[in-house]
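User: Can you write out an input/output pair for a complex, sequences first and structure second?

Assistant: Here is one pair. Inputs:
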Amino acid sequence: MKTMIGTPLVRLIAGFVIWAVGFVVLYAVQALGCAYGWGDWHRPVLIGLYLLALIPLIWLAMPARAGAEDGPLHMAALWANRAALVAAILVFLPTTFASLCI
Amino acid sequence: MSRPSSPLGLHKQLDAIWRTPPGLARLSSVNHTILGKRFMALALLFFAIGGLLSMLIRAQLATPNSAFIGPELYNQIFTMHGTVMMFLFAIPMFEGFAIYMLPKLLGARDLAFPRLTAYGFWCYLFGGSILIVAMLAGVAPDGGWFMYTPLSSKPYTPGINADVWLLGITFVEISAVTAAVEIFVTILKMRAPGMALTRMPLFAWYMLVTAGMMIIGFPPLILGSILLEMERAFDLPFFDPTRGGDPLLWQHLFWLFGHPEVYIIFLPGAGALTTIIPVFAQRPILGYRAIIAAIVAMAFLSFGLWVHHMFTVGIPHLALAFFSAASALVAIPTAVQIFAWIGTLASGRPRWDIPMLYVAGFFVVFVIGGLTGVMLAMVPFNTQAHDSHFVVAHLHYVLVGGFVFPMLAAIYYWLPHISGRQSLYRLSVPAFWLILIGFNLTFFLMHLTGLMGMPRRISTYPSNWGWDWLNLLSSVGGFILTMGFALVLADMVLQFRFGARFRRDPWRAGTLEWATATPPPSYNFASIPHIETRADQLLPAHIGPTLAGGNGYLGFARNGVQETLAVDMMSGAAEQLIVLPRRSFLPLWTALATASFFLALLFKLYWLAPFGALATLVLFLFWPLSLGARTDRGPLDIGRGLAVPPDVEAPDNVTVLANRTALVMNGTLFASLLFGGLFLLVVAPNWQGTSGPILPLWAGALALVTSLSAAGLTVVAGRNPGATMRLRVSLLATLLMQILAMALLTLAMSALGDPTGHARQAVAFVTLGYAVLHCGLGAVIAAHALWRHAQGYVSARRRTELALARLWNGYAGGVVILALGLVALLSMSGSAP
């Protein structure tokens, strides 16, 4: 199982795993904020989480360092991670404008 | 080891080891070729049943004010049509296809766990039979294929109709989860040497991702079914809003499975297309890497849009926006694949044959379904079209376009592999046109009736609403479609009877399955190839005779055992020699014991159900008796100058990987339970002013300590398996600790108060029950390791049992932590005003 750690197979799903975690966290925080009446803090918390989720995704979407492993799966992983970044930007964007609890 | 002098001699030796004898012994078959065919044949039988039901639906709706079927029977018919097509046709069909095809495509002699394949098949057969027998008895499920609560709750469905669905489908889903684990492990570990992941055919990539989706996607449905059945049987109010439950919890759990399910069904079809199109375009697939990225994107995005089935239930705009955006976005990775296929055809030298007719039909039908999917992803449109026939049209365009058309292409492409004969063609072309025309006539018009306001699931309608002629034409189209399918069936029968024989690779394909003889022998490959290029650009007609002559790996029979190879997951380097179990009646007996458990629950014989569960567990403990080794053998010759150790002497073997995978699946089920508890706590009505469960702190803390100690002791046991006394004491202590943890948690459960009084107590009760069960499993697996050690199956090299004890007891420890955390949270949240 050691061979899996740090391999392109993990990198292949890394971006979308982060996207999925971000999605679940944002959906949960949206529900919690409405249930417990977070008021004015609710949207800033959501936007903060949105931006937080983008940080690792931006890092994963950058081209690999010189000398890093190259190959077909590496390229597929890079494109999957870029897709995850775009998906996060678009899907999480409504945190900035949509009504939170109505 | 015996090396015969001729290919025929080798065939005879291997066939004597791998074959399934005729007569009753067929019931003991564990061979993937036989079981794959059985899965597909049974799935096609259920497809025919589902098709007949659809004919009844269309006959009823052909004219207004129809008295053909009363509303009660109609409810059963449309529920069973959806249920049969989704659970008894589509999923098992692609499972059977993958079970038959994957080892051949990857260069293995069978799947990783042949007896599990057989067990899955029997569960499918028995579970499916429960549903069909119930339908014939007039007590079929009648609440729609997604069984929404409260309609499916006891007060509104007092008979056993809903129980038939919940228990029958859960029984059938055992075959899906076992297949998912098998497919996942087989693809990662049992490829031909040299077939690195980056050389794997795209069909295997599709199935790898599909299996991963099944591992995460099916547990929420299984959990939902368990909870709803517990509500119906024991009055635990998970979905009853008057006692702190919420019907929306069912919808969340169902669609957490239900939407990814659409993609779980589509991806194998897309995998078949990706294999077939390059063969007929006569060029390699375009965008191999882009397709891998697109499959991964699609898999994840498909989990982020389950709420688009719930847009009209009253959800805040922000949540609607999340799911609407994800629903629209998933069209992009789908489009990447479609453009890759079109580009492959456009840049190749396409030749037309029957499979290509269905590929063309797929493009037309699926793209229409995809576009209406984007329309339905938009909240305002969705609100208007919700529960109308527009949705019926959309889902049929997606599912028939995305699965049935590719499967028909696959049948025409791969049936010669099964039959050893080529298609006759005379019926194939008219069958295609009948299906294409009949399908579009039936379902395109439903877009219009839907937009004109016709709701789903109505048994009749008045004649003055303008739906009459559209419905009549839809019904005519339905019968044309059925005639097309009947011709396909006749075509298949005729191919087996009169088709011309051929030797190998009639399509000039590039994948390894065509390197076997056709029909394939019981062992697939007389020797296993070494792959040096991408495995969708091979020359099967050239490779086949070489392998049949024994010039690959394992080109010999050794000790009368079934041998195949395991490889490194990434590089594909040969790593281990796997000895697969031979045919056995154990899977059948185990499935019968499992059936007794489900039937006892169905007929409310609750005293009998634990015996069924116990019998199943005991029979499973018999499974490893014929496996393993009592001596260390070290590296063994596998041919081509290589030697590798037996998999029982390797720490990362398929058994360990399968158990890790099963634990991920199990963990998803537990996570769904935690989600359910938290969802009710935060969202459900009638929680204010009620008292929470009282968790006896000392019992919880002690259970936590004992369970975590048990997990720690399995680590100690595994550190030095040569130290016999320390190992045995550690495992014995693990067993005792877990039994103590079970007792303490049971005590805590009994102190929670009446679990039927409020959802809070019910959730706490079930969560702790789950923890008790897993402490029990940890104890059983530790005891099993102890017993195997006493029998001589465990050594410093052979430590699989110890790894399993560590995994399951570690998991149990984690479960106890989280279960107690949730119950503590539920306890604290009780008395808010």
